[in-house]
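Disease resistance protein RGA2-like
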Amino acid sequence: MGKKFLLVLDDVWTDDFRIWEPIKVPLKSGAPGSRILVTTRNEGVSKMMDASYMLPLGKLSPEDSWSLFSKFAFYGKSREDRDNLEEIGREIADKCQGLPLAVKSLGSLMRFKETKQAWENVLHSELWELEEAERGIFPHLLLSYHDLSSPIKRCFAFCAIFPRDHKIERDTLIQLWMAQGFLVPTGSVEMEQIGAEYFDNLVMRSFFQDLERDKDDFSIVACRMHDIVQSFAQFLSKNQCFVIEFDDNKVLELNTKARHMTLMGKEEQFHPVIFNLKNLRTLQVLQKNVKTAPPDLFHGMQCLRGLDLNHTSITRLPSAIGRLFHLRWLNLSGLNFVVLPDTICKLYNLLALKLHGCRRLRRLPRGLGKLINLRYLNIEETESLSVLPQGIGRLSNLRTLSKFCIGENGEGCNVGELKNLNHLRGHLEISGLEKVRDVNEVMEANLKNKEHLRSLDLAFSFGGQELITNVLEALQPHPNLEALLVYDYGGSILPSWMSLLTKMKDLKLLRCVNCKELPPLGKLPSLEKLLIGHLNNVKCVGVEFLGKSIVLFPKLKELTFRYMVEWENWDTTTITSAATRRTMPCLRSLSLYDCPKLKAIPEGLKQRPLEELIITRCPILEQQ
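Predicted C-alpha coordinates:
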Protein backbone atom coordinates (compact mmCIF):
# COMPACT_ATOMS: atom_id res chain seq x y z
CA MET A 1 0.00 0.00 0.00
CA GLY A 2 1.43 3.39 -0.99
CA LYS A 3 1.19 6.80 0.66
CA LYS A 4 -1.90 8.96 0.83
CA PHE A 5 -1.90 11.60 -1.89
CA LEU A 6 -3.84 14.47 -3.41
CA LEU A 7 -3.44 14.74 -7.19
CA VAL A 8 -4.82 17.79 -9.00
CA LEU A 9 -5.35 17.57 -12.77
CA ASP A 10 -6.24 21.04 -13.99
CA ASP A 11 -8.10 21.89 -17.21
CA VAL A 12 -8.35 18.36 -18.62
CA TRP A 13 -9.79 18.12 -22.13
CA THR A 14 -9.00 14.67 -23.48
CA ASP A 15 -11.79 12.15 -22.98
CA ASP A 16 -9.85 9.27 -24.56
CA PHE A 17 -10.08 6.32 -22.14
CA ARG A 18 -6.91 4.81 -23.62
CA ILE A 19 -4.87 7.76 -22.35
CA TRP A 20 -6.48 7.77 -18.90
CA GLU A 21 -6.24 4.04 -18.19
CA PRO A 22 -2.40 3.70 -17.85
CA ILE A 23 -2.37 6.76 -15.57
CA LYS A 24 -5.14 5.39 -13.37
CA VAL A 25 -3.59 1.95 -12.70
CA PRO A 26 -0.64 3.04 -10.46
CA LEU A 27 -2.88 5.51 -8.62
CA LYS A 28 -5.00 2.66 -7.28
CA SER A 29 -2.18 1.73 -4.88
CA GLY A 30 -2.57 4.94 -2.86
CA ALA A 31 -3.49 4.73 0.83
CA PRO A 32 -7.13 5.16 1.91
CA GLY A 33 -8.15 8.80 1.83
CA SER A 34 -6.25 9.55 -1.40
CA ARG A 35 -8.08 11.89 -3.74
CA ILE A 36 -7.89 12.99 -7.38
CA LEU A 37 -9.30 16.44 -8.13
CA VAL A 38 -10.01 17.21 -11.79
CA THR A 39 -11.12 20.49 -13.34
CA THR A 40 -12.61 20.43 -16.83
CA ARG A 41 -15.12 22.15 -19.10
CA ASN A 42 -15.92 18.87 -20.83
CA GLU A 43 -18.56 16.76 -19.08
CA GLY A 44 -17.38 13.78 -21.10
CA VAL A 45 -14.11 13.84 -19.13
CA SER A 46 -15.89 13.25 -15.81
CA LYS A 47 -17.86 10.36 -17.30
CA MET A 48 -14.73 8.81 -18.82
CA MET A 49 -12.95 9.03 -15.45
CA ASP A 50 -15.97 7.57 -13.67
CA ALA A 51 -15.97 10.46 -11.19
CA SER A 52 -17.56 9.71 -7.82
CA TYR A 53 -18.69 13.31 -7.37
CA MET A 54 -19.19 16.25 -9.71
CA LEU A 55 -19.40 19.87 -8.62
CA PRO A 56 -20.67 22.11 -11.44
CA LEU A 57 -19.34 25.60 -10.88
CA GLY A 58 -21.98 28.30 -10.75
CA LYS A 59 -21.71 31.83 -12.05
CA LEU A 60 -20.33 34.73 -10.05
CA SER A 61 -22.73 36.63 -7.83
CA PRO A 62 -23.43 40.26 -8.80
CA GLU A 63 -21.17 41.51 -6.00
CA ASP A 64 -18.33 39.14 -6.91
CA SER A 65 -18.70 40.17 -10.55
CA TRP A 66 -18.49 43.82 -9.56
CA SER A 67 -15.47 43.19 -7.35
CA LEU A 68 -13.58 41.48 -10.19
CA PHE A 69 -14.72 44.02 -12.78
CA SER A 70 -13.70 47.05 -10.71
CA LYS A 71 -10.26 45.53 -10.00
CA PHE A 72 -9.45 45.81 -13.70
CA ALA A 73 -11.66 48.72 -14.83
CA PHE A 74 -10.54 51.22 -12.19
CA TYR A 75 -6.85 50.34 -12.21
CA GLY A 76 -4.96 53.65 -12.09
CA LYS A 77 -8.14 55.74 -11.84
CA SER A 78 -8.91 58.22 -9.07
CA ARG A 79 -11.57 57.81 -6.38
CA GLU A 80 -13.54 60.58 -8.07
CA ASP A 81 -13.58 58.68 -11.37
CA ARG A 82 -14.69 55.53 -9.58
CA ASP A 83 -17.62 57.31 -7.92
CA ASN A 84 -18.61 58.94 -11.19
CA LEU A 85 -18.55 55.70 -13.20
CA GLU A 86 -19.71 53.10 -10.68
CA GLU A 87 -23.39 53.11 -11.62
CA ILE A 88 -22.68 52.55 -15.32
CA GLY A 89 -19.93 50.09 -14.43
CA ARG A 90 -22.32 47.91 -12.43
CA GLU A 91 -24.69 47.76 -15.41
CA ILE A 92 -21.83 46.70 -17.68
CA ALA A 93 -20.69 44.07 -15.17
CA ASP A 94 -24.25 42.70 -14.97
CA LYS A 95 -24.24 42.14 -18.74
CA CYS A 96 -21.43 39.60 -18.24
CA GLN A 97 -23.96 37.26 -16.60
CA GLY A 98 -21.50 36.11 -13.95
CA LEU A 99 -18.95 34.68 -16.41
CA PRO A 100 -15.44 35.35 -14.98
CA LEU A 101 -13.69 35.61 -18.35
CA ALA A 102 -16.32 38.05 -19.60
CA VAL A 103 -15.99 40.17 -16.45
CA LYS A 104 -12.20 40.22 -16.71
CA SER A 105 -12.20 41.03 -20.43
CA LEU A 106 -14.68 43.89 -20.11
CA GLY A 107 -12.95 45.23 -17.02
CA SER A 108 -9.66 45.28 -18.93
CA LEU A 109 -11.40 47.11 -21.80
CA MET A 110 -12.89 49.78 -19.53
CA ARG A 111 -9.47 50.53 -18.05
CA PHE A 112 -8.77 52.43 -21.28
CA LYS A 113 -12.08 54.35 -21.30
CA GLU A 114 -11.64 57.70 -19.57
CA THR A 115 -15.00 59.46 -19.95
CA LYS A 116 -18.55 58.73 -18.86
CA GLN A 117 -19.67 58.97 -22.49
CA ALA A 118 -17.17 56.27 -23.49
CA TRP A 119 -18.54 53.97 -20.76
CA GLU A 120 -22.12 54.62 -21.93
CA ASN A 121 -21.12 53.79 -25.50
CA VAL A 122 -19.97 50.35 -24.34
CA LEU A 123 -23.11 49.82 -22.25
CA HIS A 124 -25.40 50.59 -25.20
CA SER A 125 -23.23 49.04 -27.92
CA GLU A 126 -25.05 47.23 -30.72
CA LEU A 127 -22.62 44.35 -30.27
CA TRP A 128 -24.73 43.13 -27.34
CA GLU A 129 -27.56 42.55 -29.83
CA LEU A 130 -25.63 40.55 -32.42
CA GLU A 131 -26.87 37.09 -33.28
CA GLU A 132 -23.71 35.60 -31.81
CA ALA A 133 -24.28 37.51 -28.60
CA GLU A 134 -27.84 36.22 -28.35
CA ARG A 135 -26.42 32.70 -28.41
CA GLY A 136 -23.99 33.65 -25.67
CA ILE A 137 -20.93 33.64 -27.92
CA PHE A 138 -18.16 36.21 -27.46
CA PRO A 139 -20.07 39.52 -26.95
CA HIS A 140 -17.63 40.71 -24.28
CA LEU A 141 -14.65 39.67 -26.41
CA LEU A 142 -16.10 41.41 -29.46
CA LEU A 143 -16.35 44.65 -27.51
CA SER A 144 -12.68 44.39 -26.49
CA TYR A 145 -11.65 43.31 -29.98
CA HIS A 146 -13.40 46.19 -31.75
CA ASP A 147 -11.62 48.61 -29.43
CA LEU A 148 -8.25 47.48 -30.83
CA SER A 149 -6.48 49.24 -33.67
CA SER A 150 -6.59 47.47 -37.04
CA PRO A 151 -2.95 46.27 -36.89
CA ILE A 152 -3.45 44.76 -33.42
CA LYS A 153 -6.69 43.09 -34.55
CA ARG A 154 -4.76 41.38 -37.32
CA CYS A 155 -2.02 40.29 -34.91
CA PHE A 156 -4.55 38.84 -32.46
CA ALA A 157 -6.49 36.93 -35.13
CA PHE A 158 -3.21 35.33 -36.23
CA CYS A 159 -2.98 33.71 -32.77
CA ALA A 160 -5.65 31.25 -33.91
CA ILE A 161 -2.74 29.23 -35.32
CA PHE A 162 -1.80 28.07 -31.83
CA PRO A 163 -3.47 24.93 -30.40
CA ARG A 164 -5.49 25.05 -27.20
CA ASP A 165 -3.34 25.60 -24.07
CA HIS A 166 -0.22 26.06 -26.21
CA LYS A 167 2.66 27.94 -24.58
CA ILE A 168 3.28 31.02 -26.71
CA GLU A 169 6.76 32.51 -26.47
CA ARG A 170 6.57 36.29 -26.65
CA ASP A 171 9.61 36.82 -28.90
CA THR A 172 8.56 34.01 -31.24
CA LEU A 173 5.10 35.53 -31.64
CA ILE A 174 6.52 38.97 -32.39
CA GLN A 175 8.90 37.47 -34.97
CA LEU A 176 6.00 35.63 -36.63
CA TRP A 177 4.08 38.90 -36.81
CA MET A 178 7.15 40.44 -38.44
CA ALA A 179 7.37 37.58 -40.94
CA GLN A 180 3.76 38.20 -42.02
CA GLY A 181 4.37 41.92 -42.50
CA PHE A 182 2.02 42.88 -39.68
CA LEU A 183 4.59 45.21 -38.07
CA VAL A 184 5.54 48.30 -40.05
CA PRO A 185 8.46 50.35 -38.68
CA THR A 186 7.92 54.09 -38.42
CA GLY A 187 10.83 56.48 -38.25
CA SER A 188 13.30 55.30 -35.62
CA VAL A 189 10.83 52.84 -34.04
CA GLU A 190 11.83 49.30 -34.97
CA MET A 191 9.50 46.39 -35.72
CA GLU A 192 10.45 44.64 -32.48
CA GLN A 193 9.39 47.64 -30.42
CA ILE A 194 6.06 47.92 -32.24
CA GLY A 195 5.46 44.19 -31.74
CA ALA A 196 6.24 44.50 -28.03
CA GLU A 197 3.68 47.32 -27.72
CA TYR A 198 1.03 45.23 -29.50
CA PHE A 199 1.77 42.24 -27.27
CA ASP A 200 1.57 44.34 -24.09
CA ASN A 201 -1.72 45.82 -25.30
CA LEU A 202 -3.22 42.34 -25.71
CA VAL A 203 -1.95 41.36 -22.26
CA MET A 204 -3.51 44.42 -20.63
CA ARG A 205 -6.84 43.62 -22.28
CA SER A 206 -6.71 40.04 -20.95
CA PHE A 207 -6.46 38.31 -24.33
CA PHE A 208 -3.41 36.48 -22.94
CA GLN A 209 -3.13 34.79 -19.55
CA ASP A 210 -0.84 32.48 -17.51
CA LEU A 211 1.98 34.95 -17.97
CA GLU A 212 5.49 33.54 -17.50
CA ARG A 213 8.04 36.14 -16.43
CA ASP A 214 11.80 36.40 -16.50
CA LYS A 215 13.23 35.78 -13.03
CA ASP A 216 15.64 38.71 -13.31
CA ASP A 217 13.82 41.65 -14.90
CA PHE A 218 10.24 40.32 -14.51
CA SER A 219 9.49 40.90 -18.20
CA ILE A 220 6.92 38.61 -19.83
CA VAL A 221 8.58 35.79 -21.78
CA ALA A 222 5.58 33.52 -22.50
CA CYS A 223 1.82 33.27 -22.16
CA ARG A 224 -1.21 31.17 -23.03
CA MET A 225 -4.70 31.90 -24.32
CA HIS A 226 -7.84 30.90 -22.47
CA ASP A 227 -9.57 28.25 -24.57
CA ILE A 228 -12.57 30.54 -25.11
CA VAL A 229 -10.24 33.31 -26.30
CA GLN A 230 -8.53 30.81 -28.60
CA SER A 231 -11.92 29.80 -30.02
CA PHE A 232 -12.72 33.49 -30.46
CA ALA A 233 -9.50 33.99 -32.45
CA GLN A 234 -10.49 31.08 -34.69
CA PHE A 235 -13.97 32.60 -35.07
CA LEU A 236 -12.35 35.83 -36.27
CA SER A 237 -9.88 34.19 -38.64
CA LYS A 238 -12.67 32.19 -40.31
CA ASN A 239 -11.14 30.17 -43.15
CA GLN A 240 -7.60 31.51 -42.82
CA CYS A 241 -6.18 29.89 -39.65
CA PHE A 242 -6.48 26.19 -38.89
CA VAL A 243 -5.27 23.80 -36.21
CA ILE A 244 -5.58 20.31 -37.68
CA GLU A 245 -5.15 17.05 -35.79
CA PHE A 246 -4.99 14.28 -38.36
CA ASP A 247 -6.88 11.05 -37.86
CA ASP A 248 -5.27 8.05 -39.54
CA ASN A 249 -8.69 6.79 -40.62
CA LYS A 250 -9.98 10.03 -42.04
CA VAL A 251 -8.96 11.88 -45.19
CA LEU A 252 -9.34 15.58 -44.64
CA GLU A 253 -10.44 18.07 -47.23
CA LEU A 254 -8.77 21.30 -46.22
CA ASN A 255 -9.71 24.72 -47.46
CA THR A 256 -7.20 25.46 -50.20
CA LYS A 257 -7.39 29.15 -49.30
CA ALA A 258 -5.94 28.48 -45.83
CA ARG A 259 -3.21 30.98 -44.97
CA HIS A 260 -1.91 29.78 -41.59
CA MET A 261 -1.92 26.18 -40.37
CA THR A 262 -0.74 23.99 -37.51
CA LEU A 263 -0.59 20.24 -38.11
CA MET A 264 -0.82 17.82 -35.19
CA GLY A 265 -1.02 14.05 -34.83
CA LYS A 266 0.86 10.80 -34.46
CA GLU A 267 1.35 10.05 -38.14
CA GLU A 268 4.89 9.30 -39.34
CA GLN A 269 4.50 11.15 -42.63
CA PHE A 270 3.24 14.49 -43.84
CA HIS A 271 -0.41 14.14 -44.80
CA PRO A 272 -0.81 14.27 -48.62
CA VAL A 273 -3.43 17.02 -48.47
CA ILE A 274 -0.90 19.67 -47.44
CA PHE A 275 0.79 19.44 -50.84
CA ASN A 276 -2.23 21.25 -52.30
CA LEU A 277 -2.13 24.22 -49.92
CA LYS A 278 -0.54 26.69 -52.30
CA ASN A 279 -1.70 29.80 -50.43
CA LEU A 280 -0.10 28.95 -47.09
CA ARG A 281 1.76 31.79 -45.38
CA THR A 282 2.56 29.94 -42.13
CA LEU A 283 3.07 26.22 -41.48
CA GLN A 284 3.70 24.84 -38.01
CA VAL A 285 4.17 21.05 -37.74
CA LEU A 286 3.65 19.45 -34.33
CA GLN A 287 4.17 15.82 -35.38
CA LYS A 288 7.05 14.25 -33.46
CA ASN A 289 6.79 10.96 -35.35
CA VAL A 290 7.56 12.58 -38.71
CA LYS A 291 11.18 11.65 -39.52
CA THR A 292 11.55 12.43 -43.20
CA ALA A 293 10.61 15.35 -45.40
CA PRO A 294 9.85 14.32 -49.01
CA PRO A 295 11.90 16.12 -51.69
CA ASP A 296 8.80 17.78 -53.15
CA LEU A 297 7.42 18.98 -49.79
CA PHE A 298 7.97 22.67 -50.56
CA HIS A 299 7.29 22.66 -54.31
CA GLY A 300 3.80 24.13 -53.95
CA MET A 301 4.40 26.44 -50.99
CA GLN A 302 5.84 29.43 -52.81
CA CYS A 303 3.95 31.90 -50.59
CA LEU A 304 5.26 30.52 -47.28
CA ARG A 305 6.63 33.16 -44.89
CA GLY A 306 6.87 31.21 -41.64
CA LEU A 307 7.92 27.54 -41.25
CA ASP A 308 8.26 25.70 -37.93
CA LEU A 309 9.59 22.12 -38.00
CA ASN A 310 10.87 22.23 -34.42
CA HIS A 311 8.44 19.57 -33.16
CA THR A 312 9.28 16.95 -35.80
CA SER A 313 12.12 14.41 -35.93
CA ILE A 314 13.39 15.31 -39.41
CA THR A 315 17.11 14.63 -39.94
CA ARG A 316 17.52 16.08 -43.42
CA LEU A 317 16.01 19.16 -45.03
CA PRO A 318 15.10 19.01 -48.76
CA SER A 319 17.23 21.29 -50.91
CA ALA A 320 13.97 22.57 -52.43
CA ILE A 321 13.62 24.80 -49.37
CA GLY A 322 15.64 27.27 -51.42
CA ARG A 323 12.51 27.81 -53.54
CA LEU A 324 10.69 29.49 -50.65
CA PHE A 325 11.81 32.96 -51.70
CA HIS A 326 9.30 34.70 -49.44
CA LEU A 327 10.30 32.75 -46.31
CA ARG A 328 11.16 35.08 -43.44
CA TRP A 329 11.02 32.87 -40.35
CA LEU A 330 12.49 29.34 -40.15
CA ASN A 331 12.56 27.29 -36.95
CA LEU A 332 14.64 24.09 -37.06
CA SER A 333 15.49 24.04 -33.35
CA GLY A 334 16.23 20.70 -31.73
CA LEU A 335 16.54 18.74 -34.98
CA ASN A 336 19.34 16.24 -35.65
CA PHE A 337 20.85 17.87 -38.71
CA VAL A 338 24.57 17.44 -39.32
CA VAL A 339 24.60 20.03 -42.12
CA LEU A 340 22.06 22.37 -43.66
CA PRO A 341 21.47 22.55 -47.42
CA ASP A 342 23.38 25.35 -49.10
CA THR A 343 20.14 26.38 -50.80
CA ILE A 344 19.12 28.07 -47.53
CA CYS A 345 21.40 30.87 -48.66
CA LYS A 346 18.86 31.69 -51.40
CA LEU A 347 16.31 32.78 -48.80
CA TYR A 348 17.24 36.44 -49.12
CA ASN A 349 14.17 37.66 -47.20
CA LEU A 350 14.89 35.51 -44.14
CA LEU A 351 14.65 37.45 -40.88
CA ALA A 352 15.06 34.60 -38.39
CA LEU A 353 16.93 31.27 -38.50
CA LYS A 354 16.46 29.31 -35.28
CA LEU A 355 18.81 26.36 -34.69
CA HIS A 356 18.67 26.19 -30.90
CA GLY A 357 19.61 22.72 -29.64
CA CYS A 358 20.78 21.29 -32.99
CA ARG A 359 23.53 19.44 -31.14
CA ARG A 360 24.83 17.47 -34.14
CA LEU A 361 25.09 20.47 -36.45
CA ARG A 362 28.74 20.76 -37.55
CA ARG A 363 28.71 23.70 -39.92
CA LEU A 364 26.57 26.45 -41.33
CA PRO A 365 26.33 27.04 -45.10
CA ARG A 366 29.31 28.97 -46.47
CA GLY A 367 27.08 31.52 -48.15
CA LEU A 368 25.21 32.49 -44.99
CA GLY A 369 26.61 36.01 -45.28
CA LYS A 370 24.30 36.57 -48.26
CA LEU A 371 21.26 36.69 -45.96
CA ILE A 372 21.68 40.39 -45.32
CA ASN A 373 18.15 40.80 -43.91
CA LEU A 374 18.75 38.25 -41.15
CA ARG A 375 17.99 39.66 -37.69
CA TYR A 376 17.99 36.51 -35.54
CA LEU A 377 20.51 33.67 -35.74
CA ASN A 378 19.90 31.44 -32.73
CA ILE A 379 22.65 28.82 -32.37
CA GLU A 380 22.54 28.19 -28.64
CA GLU A 381 23.35 24.65 -27.48
CA THR A 382 25.00 23.63 -30.76
CA GLU A 383 28.05 21.95 -29.25
CA SER A 384 29.28 20.42 -32.52
CA LEU A 385 29.36 23.81 -34.24
CA SER A 386 32.90 25.05 -33.63
CA VAL A 387 33.29 27.72 -36.30
CA LEU A 388 31.13 30.24 -38.17
CA PRO A 389 31.56 30.80 -41.93
CA GLN A 390 33.44 33.74 -43.37
CA GLY A 391 31.17 36.60 -44.34
CA ILE A 392 29.13 36.56 -41.15
CA GLY A 393 30.20 40.17 -40.70
CA ARG A 394 27.96 41.20 -43.60
CA LEU A 395 24.87 40.45 -41.50
CA SER A 396 24.75 43.98 -40.13
CA ASN A 397 21.04 43.71 -39.25
CA LEU A 398 21.60 40.94 -36.71
CA ARG A 399 19.91 41.50 -33.36
CA THR A 400 20.51 38.01 -31.97
CA LEU A 401 23.72 36.00 -32.42
CA SER A 402 23.95 33.68 -29.45
CA LYS A 403 27.55 32.63 -30.10
CA PHE A 404 30.46 33.69 -32.29
CA CYS A 405 32.97 30.88 -32.97
CA ILE A 406 36.37 32.05 -34.23
CA GLY A 407 38.19 30.01 -36.89
CA GLU A 408 41.87 29.72 -37.78
CA ASN A 409 44.17 28.93 -40.69
CA GLY A 410 41.74 30.47 -43.14
CA GLU A 411 38.87 28.29 -41.98
CA GLY A 412 35.85 30.25 -40.76
CA CYS A 413 35.50 33.82 -39.58
CA ASN A 414 37.85 35.96 -37.54
CA VAL A 415 36.88 38.11 -34.58
CA GLY A 416 37.14 41.27 -36.69
CA GLU A 417 33.90 40.32 -38.46
CA LEU A 418 32.04 41.56 -35.38
CA LYS A 419 32.90 45.10 -36.48
CA ASN A 420 29.60 45.99 -38.15
CA LEU A 421 27.29 43.93 -35.93
CA ASN A 422 26.40 46.88 -33.75
CA HIS A 423 22.70 45.99 -33.41
CA LEU A 424 23.48 42.84 -31.40
CA ARG A 425 21.51 42.70 -28.17
CA GLY A 426 20.90 40.35 -25.30
CA HIS A 427 23.55 37.64 -24.87
CA LEU A 428 26.68 36.90 -26.92
CA GLU A 429 29.34 34.22 -26.41
CA ILE A 430 32.67 34.64 -28.21
CA SER A 431 34.62 31.37 -28.24
CA GLY A 432 37.99 30.34 -29.67
CA LEU A 433 39.73 33.53 -28.55
CA GLU A 434 42.99 31.60 -28.11
CA LYS A 435 43.11 31.34 -31.93
CA VAL A 436 43.56 35.09 -32.39
CA ARG A 437 46.96 35.88 -33.90
CA ASP A 438 46.58 39.61 -34.42
CA VAL A 439 45.36 41.98 -31.70
CA ASN A 440 44.32 44.42 -34.43
CA GLU A 441 41.51 42.02 -35.35
CA VAL A 442 40.19 42.30 -31.80
CA MET A 443 40.41 46.08 -31.91
CA GLU A 444 38.49 45.98 -35.19
CA ALA A 445 35.67 43.98 -33.53
CA ASN A 446 35.00 47.13 -31.48
CA LEU A 447 32.92 45.65 -28.66
CA LYS A 448 32.78 49.12 -27.11
CA ASN A 449 30.21 50.04 -29.78
CA LYS A 450 27.84 47.15 -28.98
CA GLU A 451 25.67 49.27 -26.68
CA HIS A 452 22.68 46.90 -26.75
CA LEU A 453 24.58 43.85 -25.48
CA ARG A 454 23.61 42.96 -21.94
CA SER A 455 25.48 39.70 -21.36
CA LEU A 456 28.89 38.60 -22.69
CA ASP A 457 30.86 35.33 -22.42
CA LEU A 458 34.54 35.40 -23.37
CA ALA A 459 35.83 31.85 -23.86
CA PHE A 460 39.48 30.91 -24.32
CA SER A 461 41.23 27.54 -24.37
CA PHE A 462 44.35 26.79 -22.40
CA GLY A 463 47.63 27.18 -24.22
CA GLY A 464 50.65 29.38 -23.80
CA GLN A 465 50.72 32.39 -26.07
CA GLU A 466 52.08 35.85 -25.53
CA LEU A 467 49.11 37.68 -27.10
CA ILE A 468 46.42 36.45 -24.77
CA THR A 469 46.64 39.29 -22.23
CA ASN A 470 46.45 41.94 -24.95
CA VAL A 471 43.56 40.10 -26.59
CA LEU A 472 41.44 40.26 -23.45
CA GLU A 473 42.39 43.89 -22.83
CA ALA A 474 41.24 44.75 -26.37
CA LEU A 475 37.84 43.10 -25.81
CA GLN A 476 36.56 45.96 -23.66
CA PRO A 477 32.74 45.98 -23.89
CA HIS A 478 30.30 48.88 -23.76
CA PRO A 479 29.59 50.22 -20.23
CA ASN A 480 25.95 49.09 -20.57
CA LEU A 481 27.00 45.46 -20.06
CA GLU A 482 25.19 43.80 -17.13
CA ALA A 483 26.70 40.28 -17.06
CA LEU A 484 30.20 39.02 -17.88
CA LEU A 485 31.77 35.56 -17.89
CA VAL A 486 35.49 35.01 -18.55
CA TYR A 487 36.71 31.43 -18.59
CA ASP A 488 39.80 29.41 -19.54
CA TYR A 489 41.80 32.62 -19.83
CA GLY A 490 45.52 31.80 -19.70
CA GLY A 491 46.92 35.26 -19.02
CA SER A 492 48.33 36.35 -15.68
CA ILE A 493 46.59 39.74 -15.50
CA LEU A 494 42.88 40.48 -15.76
CA PRO A 495 41.89 43.52 -17.88
CA SER A 496 41.87 47.05 -16.51
CA TRP A 497 38.41 47.77 -17.96
CA MET A 498 36.72 45.25 -15.68
CA SER A 499 36.38 47.78 -12.87
CA LEU A 500 34.80 50.34 -15.26
CA LEU A 501 31.61 48.38 -15.98
CA THR A 502 29.35 50.45 -13.76
CA LYS A 503 26.11 48.67 -14.76
CA MET A 504 27.42 45.13 -14.33
CA LYS A 505 25.26 43.03 -12.00
CA ASP A 506 26.69 39.55 -12.51
CA LEU A 507 30.38 38.61 -12.89
CA LYS A 508 31.94 35.16 -13.22
CA LEU A 509 35.70 34.49 -13.44
CA LEU A 510 36.35 30.78 -14.04
CA ARG A 511 39.54 28.78 -14.68
CA CYS A 512 41.79 31.81 -15.07
CA VAL A 513 44.55 29.59 -13.73
CA ASN A 514 47.54 31.91 -14.21
CA CYS A 515 46.06 34.95 -12.46
CA LYS A 516 47.76 35.63 -9.13
CA GLU A 517 45.54 38.41 -7.84
CA LEU A 518 42.01 39.68 -8.28
CA PRO A 519 41.11 43.02 -9.89
CA PRO A 520 39.62 45.86 -7.78
CA LEU A 521 35.99 44.86 -8.09
CA GLY A 522 34.77 46.50 -4.88
CA LYS A 523 34.02 49.79 -6.57
CA LEU A 524 31.56 48.29 -9.05
CA PRO A 525 28.37 50.12 -7.99
CA SER A 526 25.81 47.68 -9.47
CA LEU A 527 27.43 44.28 -8.87
CA GLU A 528 24.99 41.87 -7.18
CA LYS A 529 26.46 38.41 -7.91
CA LEU A 530 30.14 37.44 -8.01
CA LEU A 531 31.50 33.95 -8.72
CA ILE A 532 35.24 33.22 -8.73
CA GLY A 533 36.42 29.69 -9.40
CA HIS A 534 39.54 27.68 -10.31
CA LEU A 535 41.97 30.59 -9.93
CA ASN A 536 44.65 28.17 -8.84
CA ASN A 537 47.50 30.69 -8.45
CA VAL A 538 45.70 33.08 -6.12
CA LYS A 539 47.14 32.73 -2.61
CA CYS A 540 45.89 35.92 -1.00
CA VAL A 541 42.79 38.08 -1.43
CA GLY A 542 43.38 41.48 0.12
CA VAL A 543 42.65 45.16 -0.25
CA GLU A 544 43.53 45.05 -3.96
CA PHE A 545 40.27 43.11 -4.41
CA LEU A 546 38.25 45.79 -2.64
CA GLY A 547 39.56 48.81 -4.51
CA LYS A 548 38.95 52.37 -3.36
CA SER A 549 35.44 53.66 -2.85
CA ILE A 550 33.29 55.14 -0.08
CA VAL A 551 31.22 51.94 -0.03
CA LEU A 552 32.85 48.72 -1.22
CA PHE A 553 30.67 46.21 -3.09
CA PRO A 554 27.63 48.41 -2.27
CA LYS A 555 25.01 46.09 -3.83
CA LEU A 556 26.70 42.68 -3.68
CA LYS A 557 24.20 40.04 -2.51
CA GLU A 558 25.84 36.73 -3.49
CA LEU A 559 29.56 35.94 -3.23
CA THR A 560 30.91 32.51 -4.20
CA PHE A 561 34.44 31.09 -4.33
CA ARG A 562 35.00 27.61 -5.83
CA TYR A 563 38.09 25.40 -6.18
CA MET A 564 40.65 27.94 -4.98
CA VAL A 565 43.21 25.26 -4.11
CA GLU A 566 46.13 27.59 -3.18
CA TRP A 567 44.14 30.34 -1.47
CA GLU A 568 45.38 30.80 2.10
CA ASN A 569 44.61 34.32 3.30
CA TRP A 570 41.56 36.56 3.04
CA ASP A 571 43.10 39.68 4.49
CA THR A 572 41.21 42.94 5.05
CA THR A 573 42.99 43.97 8.26
CA THR A 574 44.55 47.06 6.70
CA ILE A 575 41.23 48.85 6.21
CA THR A 576 39.62 50.84 9.01
CA SER A 577 36.74 49.59 11.12
CA ALA A 578 34.50 52.24 9.53
CA ALA A 579 35.44 50.98 6.07
CA THR A 580 34.75 47.42 7.21
CA ARG A 581 31.20 48.42 8.07
CA ARG A 582 30.84 49.86 4.57
CA THR A 583 32.06 46.67 2.87
CA MET A 584 29.43 44.41 1.30
CA PRO A 585 26.54 45.93 3.30
CA CYS A 586 23.91 44.01 1.27
CA LEU A 587 25.59 40.58 1.35
CA ARG A 588 23.05 37.81 1.94
CA SER A 589 24.81 34.69 0.66
CA LEU A 590 28.45 33.58 1.09
CA SER A 591 29.56 30.24 -0.37
CA LEU A 592 33.01 28.67 -0.16
CA TYR A 593 33.66 25.37 -1.95
CA ASP A 594 36.95 23.44 -2.10
CA CYS A 595 39.27 26.03 -0.61
CA PRO A 596 41.43 23.57 1.40
CA LYS A 597 44.10 26.07 2.55
CA LEU A 598 41.88 29.04 3.46
CA LYS A 599 42.53 29.92 7.11
CA ALA A 600 39.79 32.37 8.03
CA ILE A 601 36.88 34.54 6.93
CA PRO A 602 37.26 38.30 7.57
CA GLU A 603 35.66 39.38 10.84
CA GLY A 604 33.61 42.02 9.05
CA LEU A 605 31.84 39.40 6.95
CA LYS A 606 31.10 37.28 10.00
CA GLN A 607 29.06 40.19 11.34
CA ARG A 608 26.86 40.41 8.27
CA PRO A 609 23.24 39.18 8.69
CA LEU A 610 23.69 36.39 6.15
CA GLU A 611 20.70 34.38 5.03
CA GLU A 612 22.94 31.64 3.64
CA LEU A 613 26.47 30.51 4.56
CA ILE A 614 27.86 27.45 2.77
CA ILE A 615 31.31 26.06 3.61
CA THR A 616 32.10 22.79 1.84
CA ARG A 617 35.42 20.91 1.67
CA CYS A 618 37.27 23.74 3.42
CA PRO A 619 38.82 21.68 6.27
CA ILE A 620 40.51 24.52 8.17
CA LEU A 621 37.36 26.65 8.22
CA GLU A 622 35.19 23.68 9.14
CA GLN A 623 37.30 23.06 12.26
CA GLN A 624 36.79 26.62 13.53
